[in-house]
Amino acid sequence: MSNFTLQELQSFxxxxxxxxxxxxxTRLHRSHSAVFAAVAKLEARVGIALLDRSGYRVVPxxxxxxxxxxxxxxxxxxxxxxxxxxQLASGEETQLRVILGDTxxxxxxxxxxxxxxxxxxxxxxxxxxxxxxxxxxxxxxGEADLVLHxxxxxxxxxxxxxxxxxxxxxxxxxxxxxxxxxxSIAPExxxxxxxxxxxxxxxxxxxxxxxxxxxxxxxxxxxxxxxKEVILRGLAWGHxxxxxxxAELERGLLxxxxxxxxxxxxxxxxxxxxxxxxxxxxACRLWHHIAQRAHAFALKPDGSRRxxx
Length: 309
Description:
Blueprint: H1 6-18, H2 21-28, H3 32-46, E1 51-52, E2 59-60, H4 62-90, E3 95-101, H5 106-113, E4 124-130, H6 134-140, E5 146-149, E6 158-172, H7 187-190, E7 195-198, E8 218-221, H8 224-232, E9 238-241, H9 242-251, E10 255-256, E11 265-274, H10 281-297
Parallel strand pairs: 3-4, 3-5, 7-8
Antiparallel strand pairs: 1-2, 5-11, 6-9, 6-10, 6-11
Helix pairs in contact: 1-2, 1-3, 1-4, 2-3
């Protein structure tokens, strides 16, 4: 049995994640035939079928799922090694890829980063916005150096700096509900009403579902700003971060329906990076910069700052 090539493993990973050869080829910017041939060679090398091609979507076999988990780990290590080699060659990073997640207040997040990159004229800030599990996925896939969002703190691959908590409140516009708001509103009462949810930017097949009411009609948007507008106009209900809606709640433009069955939730906002990969000198300075300012930044669930002592 011959050794695998990196191209074969990348092709297999792309096909599994995207659910098809054409979609996988598009992700890798390769031709359909090249990706198909690479996966076929990989299956020939291992001597087992890794993909089930009998259905509408290509899915991994049981052996393929097990193999894919190892492939993902290997590709992540290969990406980290490539990044480290480029950092060693250049001395300092020419760019840092930072992601603001949808749980991070934009103004405060930019304030936290502010000033640092002005002192790093040779390092470009490559800043992106991702939602739900997208930031964590980008970090795990080596496509981000740092995220301001939430991560799975039980995952040993991450290290983080706590930045506070963000509360998500279930809200509606006045008159949207065909019944009175009480603390005992039940899921059955909401099931016929449209819920507005944010599109998860994660690409993987296993995407978590947060605050989503199963079988209810849905309106999908790209970010919290659009979600807020949809809810304000009485088109749907949904959960919004408290830091975005304090004024609207106070003025009665939005109404909280938090109660027994829809209690809302608070999540830990963190600055996170990979613990299991090397970091260049600029990335280390940015980490130190954030650690020094984390206490002053620390948010209460409603998005206000904690008082510094």
